[in-house]
Specification:
The protein has about 575 residues and is of the alpha/beta class. A hairpin with a 2-residue loop joins strand 2 (about 35-45) and strand 3. The protein is globular, with a radius of gyration of 25 Å. It starts with a helix and ends with a strand.
């Protein structure tokens, strides 16, 4: 009866000029029942799904917008349940981890993070991620999130204020409303700091449950700080706010859950969990985000051992990805080599392998016990880029034994459950918000097919991919530079026109066409040691980008200038001046 009433209401709305879109001949990916429903028509009225019926039963009005989705699949918009907008994902994102403030002042990085919300929001939508949960922001970002509430080029953004913690890295002190941490020393501090956040209307509260900084062993430190943790959770719940907790040790995770934590944003990585621990989470309806790749991304950055996929090289913020390669040419070799050698040490490699194995095994235990798992990346940390890192996280979850159905469930409806929004989004269902992805290929046969996006529907608006983010000449030049340094020939060629012309300045044609270019550069990528291009200066003049470069070929270093001419969204001509 309720469904019929809702259909009637949507019918009346359509009669009075509200916009409608009919997606016909589509296969619905039902993430709750774990089945494919073929030959369906999904009707969107304004920003909600107003009807779903078999193609044969739907009569389409003459003035409706129609999308013929024959052979395509429709899935709910994805949820990244663990991001940080105060971090950009590049090399300079965490001065408490590697202090490069001499290269990039932290105040500049803070301003960049505020400006980057727009581009990162578009990247999320472009990658089919229509909801993000920022589990640790700042007061300034809480205010800024309002600017994107009704913007279809931005995901639905849910956000905490500063992380409440008993340990604060010194580099984040005295940043006023840009401070991502609030230091809590007493129970009264904890209660007061929850109350301080209320005026900014956070969507929930986040605790950074860090142990050992006080010099005590893990369990003693965890229990010493437990009264503060408990007080924060209780005060948050009194104000109808759920609580997310960063707890990577079994004891901190257990104590947090026993005292009411709603959401654990990391895996336990210090020991194998038991079924008793998993059952505790299930009993308390605590949701866990495995967050599997973030540690490896730090390691890969510091060792400069990149294995970026074509997807990441083409779908990321190209400027932030480019900074990750700066370690190859920064002048402070003592610092950069120190990090590189430390990460490559046998001790660190063994520790990383053990940590990864523990997290993967623990994920299997949690899934088998029926614990609710939600997908999240910890995007914004060094090497974990906003939006484009999502696929790698899904692949890691698959390594942990999750089926594609389970991964999709974790990436959609389970993400909605974190903040009690499962009645609003997370499935392709009548009455839910029209946050959807139309895919060219079936994600159940291959989870990588989540990147075969035909169109995104966000906040009821049908979006063509090229309309979400338009490639600028500078972005094209940066993408091919990143792929060059990553030695990825496919991603390197992607920004170039098929009939690209490459010249020695001023007019000596070296070769024409991608095929010849592929042969030349593929050999160089394969056979040249110490291949790295440092961008020293860039000038943009209309559709022309001029890069002054310092290029290392083995033991040789060449100062060069590359002039890129962009036409119709591709690099059409290149002139090299050596």
């Amino acid at each position: 009866m309720k469904a019929n009433v809702m259909l009637f209401i949507f019918y009346l709305l359509s009669m009075y000029g509200f916009s409608q879109t009919y997606i016909t001949n589509v296969t619905i990916v039902d993430v709750e029942k774990k089945k494919l429903i073929e030959n369906q028509t999904v009707v969107i009225t304004d920003d909600k799904i107003s009807n779903i019926q078999s193609n044969k039963k739907v009569k389409i009005p003459e003035n409706a917008t129609v999308i013929d989705a024959t052979g395509k699949f429709i899935v709910p918009g994805l949820v990244d349940a663990h991001v940080h907008f105060f971090q950009n994902g590049g090399l300079y994102a965490r001065p408490d981890v590697i202090d490069l403030r001499g290269e990039q002042p932290h105040k500049d990085e803070i301003e960049l993070s505020k400006n980057n919300i727009e581009i990162h929001s578009k990247l999320y939508v472009r990658n089919g991620i229509t909801t993000v949960i920022d589990v640790g922001a700042t007061y300034n970002l809480l205010n800024k999130r309002r600017d994107y509430k009704d913007n279809p080029l931005a995901p639905n953004i849910y956000m905490t204020g500063p992380l409440l913690t008993t340990y604060e890295p010194a580099v984040y002190n005295n940043l006023d409303k840009d401070e991502p941490f609030s230091l809590v020393k007493t129970v009264d501090d904890g209660i007061k700091m929850v109350q301080n956040q209320l005026q900014y209307k956070p969507d929930f509260i986040k605790i950074w449950y860090i142990v050992g900084a006080d010099g005590l062993d893990t369990e003693t430190s965890a229990r010493k700080n437990l009264p503060i943790i408990k007080a924060i959770i209780e005060e948050s719940h009194k104000n109808n706010l759920k609580v997310a907790v960063h707890a990577t040790q079994r004891i901190t995770a257990q104590l947090a859950v026993e005292n009411g934590a709603d959401f654990l944003v990391h895996s336990v990585d210090d020991e194998l969990i038991t079924t008793d621990f998993a059952n505790l989470l299930k009993k308390n309806n605590t949701i866990l985000c495995p967050t599997l790749i973030v540690h490896d991304r730090y390691n890969k950055t510091f060792t400069q051992d990149f294995d970026y996929s074509n997807h990441e090289l083409t779908a990321s913020n190209p400027y932030q990805l480019g900074t990750l390669m700066d370690l190859a040419h920064l002048e402070n070799k003592q610092l950069t080599d120190g990090y590189k050698n430390a990460m490559k040490s046998e001790q660190n490699k063994s520790r990383a392998e053990q940590m990864n194995a523990t997290m993967i095994t623990n994920l299997k235990t949690l899934v088998d016990a029926g614990v609710t798992i939600a997908t999240g990346t910890d995007a914004g940390n060094i090497g974990t880029l906003h939006a484009s890192s999502y696929l790698a996280e899904l692949q890691a979850m698959q390594t942990g034994g999750m089926t594609n159905w389970q991964i999709l469930e974790a990436s959609t409806i389970n993400g909605a459950k974190i903040l009690g929004k499962e009645s609003e989004y997370g499935t392709v269902s009548i009455g839910k918000k029209a946050n959807l992805i139309i895919l060219d290929s079936n994600p159940i046969t291959d989870i990588n097919n989540l990147t075969t996006i035909h169109q995104v529907i966000n906040k009821g608006k049908v979006l063509e991919l090229n309309d979400i983010i338009k490639d600028t000449p500078e972005a094209l030049a940066q993408r091919q530079l990143n792929a060059y340094n990553a030695r990825n020939i496919k991603a390197f060629l992607e920004p170039y026109a098929d009939d690209v012309e490459v010249y020695t300045f001023p007019n000596q044609l070296m070769f024409k066409g991608k095929d010849l270019m592929r042969g030349s550069y593929a050999q160089m990528f394969k056979n040249t040691p110490n291949l790295h291009c440092e961008l020293e200066n860039r000038i943009i003049q209309g559709n022309v980008v001029i890069d002054e470069e310092r290029v290392q070929f083995g033991e040789r270093i060449i100062e060069a200038t590359a002039i890129y001419h962009i036409e119709k969204g591709k690099i059409q001509k290149v002139y090299f001046i050596n």
